């Protein structure tokens, strides 16, 4: 029964990934149709991510009241409705408004399912769970690229992905009896988690650098996904549809990397997985700097995706080891909220800077974040190792 539910959770994570990547792919055509500056993509992303922060922050209370199954089903319904609404939108304001339910739905799904899997499954399943997110994130830009050559192609892309989301809502609704069995069991078990104030959790040894590393990771992943297509169009002269396909390969790198990470995690620990991923990311960003070879830049995008693959799942799974099982629930929520802050504010900051300096700064911008993530992550490992030796 738990295996059947795991398959359903994997499918739900596909739905989480589908909308995440399509804005960046559609934006080169979308902003022209709506007659708004290219930098306005950061505004939409900030609204979506803002909704994600809010829903993640309150997800604990909502899930406790309604259950993981119902919250997940309703959240996917919100994303489906938002995507279908964008198909009918005829102004930038409506895109912004529909970004609110899109973000609210994504945050609740992410928080609910990550916590459910962390409590019941092994580390390899956490990697594979996020691999299925990558399947959705890869499929989104690819589907969009198939429509971009047509008139109103970005609308048709949103319509198609919205219909896929609606089908997933039906599947999740049919699975509600399965969720209810586990939720009843959970309510009968004693809660072993200690409630601690946020101010106390932040003062834990290693907590602050851990939060910075989460902030940097999501900033890197989303900034790359949102702006890589525009970088290739403006800086390299690629067509919008070809750039969208290149970005889909970036998400394919994340997807394949997380699938392989599930097997590698059997041999290596979380700290090793995080370190290897960060080094690969830096190599990818250096390759993206090379202006004389489009092929090398494509390889760079794929390497950034492969490098990102193990980092986030490993950091999530390492949380109980870093801070103790009793405090993991509280610190996990703060980490995810901080990560969403990075995905909310950093992409629009880059959009603002690129408008002044140019899109050619993207690789340098990413490397700064990657080095900061590496340094803070190593700091967490060092502090936690010292704590264990006391």
Description:
With 390 residues, the protein is an all-alpha fold. The chain has one domain: Growth Hormone, Chain: A (Up-down Bundle). Helix content is 86%, strand content 0%. Residues 188-193 have low confidence and may be disordered. It is a multi-pass membrane protein. Belongs to the major facilitator superfamily. Residues 5-381 form the Major facilitator superfamily (MFS) profile domain. Keywords: Membrane, Transmembrane, Transmembrane helix, Transport.
Record the SSE blueprint.
Blueprint: H1 2-17, H2 22-33, H3 41-66, H4 68-88, H5 92-120, H6 123-147, H7 153-174, H8 176-188, H9 198-202, H10 207-236, H11 240-264, H12 270-289, H13 294-323, H14 325-356, H15 362-389
Give the strand content. under 5%
Mean pLDDT: 83
Number of strands: 0
Stretches where pLDDT is under 50 for at least 5 consecutive residues are 188-193
How many structural domains?
1
Main beta-sheet annotation: none
Helix content: over 70%
Gyration radius, rounded? 20 Å
State the CATH topology.
Growth Hormone, Chain: A
Please tally the helical runs, counting DSSP H or I stretches of 4 or more residues. Answer: 15
The run of helices and strands is HHHHHHHHHHHHHHH
Calculate the terminal CA-CA distance, rounded to whole Å: 43 Å
Structural class: mainly alpha
| CATH homologous superfamily identity | MFS general substrate transporter like domains
CATH architecture: Up-down Bundle
Q: Please identify the top-level CATH class.
A: Mainly Alpha
Protein name: MFS transporter
Pfam family, one: MFS_1
Transmembrane segments: 40-59, 71-88, 94-116, 128-149, 155-179, 211-234, 246-266, 273-292, 352-375
Subcellular location: Cell membrane
